[in-house]
Amino acid sequence: MFLFTGIVEEIGTVAAVQQDSNSFKLSIRCKKVLEDVKKGDSIAVNGVCLTVSDFSTHQFTADVMPETVKATTLHTLRLGNRLNLERAMAANGRFGGHFVSGHVDGTGEIIAIRQKENAIYMEIDIVSEYLNYFIPKGSVTVDGTSLTVFGVTKKGFIISLIPVTQEDSIIGRKRIGEKVNVECDILAKYMERLITTDKGKPAGSLTMDSLAASGFLD
Length: 218
Known about the structure:
By secondary structure, the protein is mostly beta strands. The chain has helices at 66-71, 163-168, 186-195, 208-213, and strands at 10-19, 24-29, 42-45, 48-55, 59-64, 82-87, 106-116, 119-125, 139-142, 145-152, 156-161, 179-184. It comes from Sporosarcina limicola.
């Protein structure tokens, strides 16, 4: 599995979209992520792990499969749209964010935005099946950006964007009603799988209550 960190390296621009019936080819104009690119490399595009099928000195092309079209916001992209880009983490690289797989769980909708001094707070609604993966001060990936969960609501979560994130990613340019790609914390998903059976009930003596009592959960 390729691993990303959620630290955006560059903001790219959609150069071309070749639409098929349920899939498409996406060409992205960029610079930094092309420095050492090879055919077959993985690049996270708004948090979606895509494989480089072709590249030049100023852009790369990737195929977007039908399943990716259904599960992400990539099908809404148009010529000139801006995108968060990150290369897969090198084995000798510094780890600045959190474990990000580039496998988006689904999309969320921005329902509220408020400015508080130098921070922008965003409230994002998601489908109910993912709510268990969020805790205050936990991690989430939104459009490929590693962020801290500042609050959990009945329908989603709240994030806060510091000035650097506002400047170096596309998240700060989003508006109410826009959709974003959301990847839940992969460690939370593995933990849920370990402590539950196929029927969703606790397995053995390891339960959410026992984890909380041991200080592993807030």
